[in-house]
DNA sequence: CCTTTTGGTTATCAAAAGATAAGTAAAAGG
DNA sequence: CCTTTTACTTATCTTTTGATAACCAAAAGG
């Protein structure tokens, strides 16, 4: 069937694409290992950059860790003073985590470096092309990579 | 500066997008853990799916492992009979790895499941939209996520 | 030839991540 | 009230991953 085989081609493209995304982000976040955080801890901090404050359950869900392991990594981040903890007064079982000042500073440092890497990759694109790029990201995020 | 702040917005979008790609691929490849391979081993097998045969050096480069650790994981995959090894006769230092029949079958099984997951995500898109999707992937891969 | 470089392997150790059991405290629901 | 559920923590053990040193054999290059 025609639509089936073209779907296969599209699928192959998606697989190759996701592999490329993984490889490029791995390369660009390689500066993280200069900082004193493990990859799992970085993922947690990155998630906090996008959404604050967050509970351990939310982190576990979105980062793909079990709740006990999330709790352990959060404790380590607290020990490193990269995040802060507070109880949710409307439900005192819930713990609210946010980046500390140090954590913010560290993530800003890392993000600045990652941003530099991305900017090198899109340097030389015209405004028209940048607009198309943004539209492409929006489209993919609304279809294939929606949550 | 206008172009600078719009670049920041684009960067934020890229960060959120890459996080979404990681999360979705993690979710869709969750069936991998029914099979007897670790995440690192899966990455190697996935790379072999896209390009065969491959040498340990190529794998190390593309998958982001050190050569000794790549060699270790390849040995484990050989023990599991998921790949095969042969010397390159034109340069007998080089070792050529490819998927075994079992490995092919396993990856086909996993890919079929992943493909099903992706197809659910793009079900209901018109042919026009699918074409746009493919164009969007091509654009991103040629700019931001090129290697 | 002989040295150096390249491609790969083996071994070993430490760190990180995954899994699971058992526990605490607050909230929800009869 | 009393029980159950939810949210989280602690502890422990195993597996996986990362890093490094030492090694071998083939090729490259004088």
Strand content of chain A: 5-15%
Helix amount of chain A, in percent? 55-70%
Oligomer: homodimer
Largest interchain contact: A-B, 51 and 50 residues
What sort of overall outline of chain A do the alpha carbons produce when their principal axes are compared? globular
Report the end-to-end length of chain A measured between terminal Cα atoms.
30 Å
What is the CATH H-level superfamily of chain A? Answer: Winged helix-like DNA-binding domain superfamily/Winged helix DNA-binding domain
| Gross CATH architecture of chain A | Orthogonal Bundle
The count of strands of chain A amounts to: 2
* Order of strands, widest sheet of chain A: 1-2
* Tally of domains of chain A: 1
Structural class of chain A: mainly alpha
Low-confidence stretches of chain A: none
Main beta sheet of chain A: 2 strands, antiparallel
Average pLDDT of chain A works out at 90
Give the class-level CATH name of chain A: Mainly Alpha
CA gyration radius of chain A, whole angstroms: 19 Å
Protein architecture, described:
The structure is a homodimer of 147-residue chains. Chain A has 147 residues and is mainly alpha-helical. Chain A has a single domain (2-142), classed as Arc Repressor Mutant, subunit A (Orthogonal Bundle). In chain A, 67% of the residues lie in helices and 7% in strands. The first copy, chain A, is built from six helices and two strands. The first copy, chain A, has a two-stranded antiparallel sheet. In chain A, strand 1 and strand 2 form a beta hairpin. The two termini of chain A are 30 Å apart. The mean pLDDT of chain A is 90. Chains A and B meet through helix 1, helix 2, helix 5 and helix 6 of A and helix 1, helix 2, helix 5 and helix 6 of B. Chain A binds a DNA duplex (30 and 30 nucleotides) through helix 4.
């Amino acid at each position: 069937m025609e639509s089936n085989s073209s779907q296969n081609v599209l699928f192959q493209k998606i697989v190759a694409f996701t592999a490329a995304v993984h490889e490029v982000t791995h390369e660009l976040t390689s500066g993280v290992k200069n900082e004193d955080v493990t990859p799992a801890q970085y993922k947690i901090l990155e998630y906090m950059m996008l959404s604050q404050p967050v509970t351990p359950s939310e982190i576990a869900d979105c980062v793909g860790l079990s709740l006990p392991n999330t709790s352990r990594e959060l404790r380590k981040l607290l020990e490193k003073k990269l995040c802060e903890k507070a109880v949710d007064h409307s439900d005192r079982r819930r713990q609210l985590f946010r980046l500390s000042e140090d954590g913010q500073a560290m993530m800003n440092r890392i993000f600045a470096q990652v941003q530099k890497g991305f900017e090198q990759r899109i340097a030389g694109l015209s405004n028209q092309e940048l607009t198309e790029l943004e539209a492409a990201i929006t489209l993919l995020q609304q279809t294939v990579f929606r949550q």
